[in-house]
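Exercise: predict the fold of this chain.
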Amino acid sequence: MGLLSFGGAKTVVGVDIGSSAVKAVELKPLKRGFELVAIGHASLIPDAIVDGHIIDLNHVSDTIGRLLAENNIKNRDVNTSVSGHSVIIKKIEVAYMTDDELAERIQWEADQHIPFDITDVNLDYSVVSRDPSAGVMQVLLVACKRDKIAQYTTVISQAGRNAVVIDVDAFALQNAYEVNYQPMPTATVVLLNIGASVTNINIVRGSNSVFVRDISAGGNQYTDLLQKELGLTFEQAEALKRGIPTDSGLQLSDAQSLLDSVTDIIAMEVQKTLDFWRSTSPSGDVAPVDQVLVAGGSSKVSGLTSIFSERFGIPVERFNAFNPSQIVISPKKDEEYIREISPMMAVAVGLAARRPGE
């Protein structure tokens, strides 16, 4: 989406603007891997961002500015990302052609596949594979509504920074996966990022994305149900879902069956996505899934990984966004805190792990 280069910055900053919190990571590229320079997380007030649309621009920009200042992040250039209904990602098959021919033709191809007016979107694409013998090539097409991009660039500029790259959450998650897990070319892994209102799903083989979808389900459903069924405030429900007893004496065990019911709903939506991918992809593109990695704040909901593993019949783990063999962490940093928030920092890590010119 109109990607720009960094102009030789010594560090790269990723800012993940979620609907419940802003996450920031600053990485310094090393010859091999990265060094973690700074990391931070700040909650947003409820409804500051609704369905991916920034409602309270001032609150979000103030939160970004404060988060970066408090963590001593001075680099003015930042990378951020978007997701949700305003973003369309499609893999299309086109006739085999040169890069120049594709550049000329992509607008017309996009017009056939993107359900928005093509003049209202920013467009980007990447050639996934070429098959000269069959005379076809696979192209990944990404479109995002311009007004959505304008909202995200506005809050970053109001925070005194420049948005130099606008990526897509699912691809930033994939970048963090490639950095931390160094995948084998044949490994098929489902990457899930369970945010407050949207869950990003990216099915990846090796380092190729084979299917991407965002579903409207996430952590807010846990909070809403706990508030409704147990008569809790928003803050009490948020705490209880993370296993912290409420001041009225409710324990995690009092909420577990409610939490499980929401986890089942999210698992069912993910299963539907996997079934859709299997039924609509050419048979050669579908392989057994080796593992599911779960990122996002709700990855830590009690019982989630075991329920997912049981339903999918494959290993499910929380995402490790800071593999020590790939991302060097100074002994001065609070390792326990970093390990604790690691799954929710995955998108920010993926954004900060883009090397100059990528």
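Check your answer against the key: The CA atoms of residues 113 and 198 lie 23 Å apart.
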